Amino acid sequence: MITEIKKIYSTDFSVHHIILTDSFSNIPKSQLSEKESVYINKLDVEDEVKSVHFNNFEQQKFIISVPKKDKDFLTDEAFRKAGSSLKFQSLSIEEITIYDFTSSNGSLFFAEGMILGNYKFDKYKGKDKEKQLTHIFIYCDNLREKDVELMNISNQATFKCRDLSNEPQSVIDSVSIAKVFKEMCDETGITIEIFNKKKIESLKFGGILAVNKGSINEPTFSVMKWKPENAINKKPYIFVGKGVVFDTGGLNVKTGNSMLDMKIDMAGAAAVATAMWAISKAKLPVYAIALVPATDNRSNGNAYAPGDIIKMHNGKTVEIINTDAEGRMILADALSYASKFEPELVIDLATLTGSAVRAIGKYASAAMKNESCQHYDLLSKSGENVYERLVEFPMWDEYGDSIKSDFADIKNLGDSDAGLISAAKFLEHFVSFPWIHLDIAGSSILSSKYDYSTKGASGVGTRLLFDFVKKLTENKLD
Ligand code: BES
Ligand code: ZN
Ligand code: ZN
To answer: Which residues surround ligand 3, an ion (CB under 5 A)?
Structure first.
């Protein structure tokens, strides 16, 4: 169940409600009882978030002040954070109304933070007795119905992304992930083609087939296409997602608990598919394609091994140094396949390297791009808008030196320094179009909840791509 946001046009202060303001001094006196007023007036009007809760039983009332920040995107984020810290879960509230007295119209972001922060992956737990929040009503003159609709879609897509990523590998494997994609595509009118192993063999996707050798499940390759008649672009935007449904490391097996979160090694795949769902649900006039190579990475008597030399889809050969560097093997085939669509831009999202986690942790995704890419600033701006920030790393030629091989064109692992960049340099060998690579290893898997990002899969990427495509089409939305 996901909470829906609705705009309302009349006021009723007898119901559960939130009064949202930039400053306590801005609250119209008529909204407070005398006692409440006296209490509020005693509080300092400071430049920090303040929250007061009056428990009037039948009418829970929260008064929250979120001061403006220097930049709009920081103010929006302050509202999301304030929304996620609202403690309403134990109050049996099914519906609540936000009265927005802010100068920045923060209520939609506040509601977003409440909803995303309240996400739980609890389908395998005994049922909670608490009532669930079904609706957030917003009273705000300047709020556009269209933005409410897009926010509801964004929240649903993010929940879908988290749900899909959090499912264990016993449920989501290379075949069932494609079935989930098909269901999502059928719902909104995206066309989907799912390549089976035979087709993958005929396309000579050597990287995908090599990684899949140790698996008892066949690989799949999903091609999802959204091409509305009113599309503003002729050449497609292509999103590629790493779909390793479980990464054991293969023969270079992962040790200790480092395998524990590896059911989420398909977070990139979940992000691109759910972003496509959102784009099509919102009927955005943009031609977009998502490509997802899917397999698990396991060891058995047939598994690919260090020392193997693999011929890839674009004809280049790769010497395997370490079977745990499998993501780049499957992405490389998907990227070289993307060239057949003559894309405007390709963005890949992948839980690619531990090095990205060590470099920037969970607060950002690592971004790298090639020279022909013109869209990076726009994507980075979307990263600020939805607060899924990007940090750009260099792609200097020298970083490619460590993946030179004595026996093949390149090898699948460089030296231990700057592993996130040498992984991107590897992918660059398979790219012949404007391209942005996002290593989401740190931002997509969380060991604990923070703000409105929840433990396990954060769902990063869905909102980012949705906002990016929205911005591409912005002036067509009115
Ligand atoms: N899926 C992992 C990367 C990863 C690590 C994602 C931690 C999320 C959290 C990837 O396939 C991998 O195993 N990378 C290795 C490569 C190794 C051979 C050096 C890594 O970066 O540790
Ligand atoms: Zn791996
Ligand atoms: Zn992996």
So the answer is: 244, 247, 265, 327
Fold of 154-477: Aminopeptidase (3.40.630)
Ligand 1 touching residue 434 (CB < 6 A): no
- Residue 194: closest CA among 182, 186, 206: 182
- Bridge partners, 187 (sequence order): none
Q: Are strands 345-350 and 365-369 parallel, antiparallel or unpaired?
A: unpaired
Write the DSSP string, 365-416: EEEEE-TT---HHHHHHHHHHTT--EEE----GGGGGGGB-SSSSEES---S
Architecture (CATH level 2) of domain 4-144? 3-Layer(aba) Sandwich (3.40)
Atom in ligand 1 nearest the alpha carbon of residue 444: 8
Q: Structural domain boundaries of the chain?
A: 4-144, 154-477
At residue 131 the predicted structure's pLDDT band, cuts being 50, 70 and 90, is: confident
Condensed to tens digits (0 to 9), the pLDDT of residues 298-329 reads: 999 999 999 999 999 999 999 999 999 999 99
Beta bridge pairs of residue 224: 192, 290
C-beta of 321 in contact with ligand 1 (< 6 A): no
270 CA → ligand 2 middle, Å? 17
Ligand 1 neighbour 265 (Cβ under 6 A):
yes
Question: Would you call 328 a catalytic residue per the annotation?
Answer: yes
Dist. CA 328 → ligand 2 center (Å):
9
| pTM, entire model | 0.98
Q: Give the DSSP per-residue string, 175-209.
A: HHHHHHHHHHHHHHT-EEEEE-HHHHHHTT-HHHH
Q: Is 369 a catalytic residue?
A: no
pLDDT digits (tens, 9 = 90+) for 203-228: 999 999 999 999 999 999 999 999 99
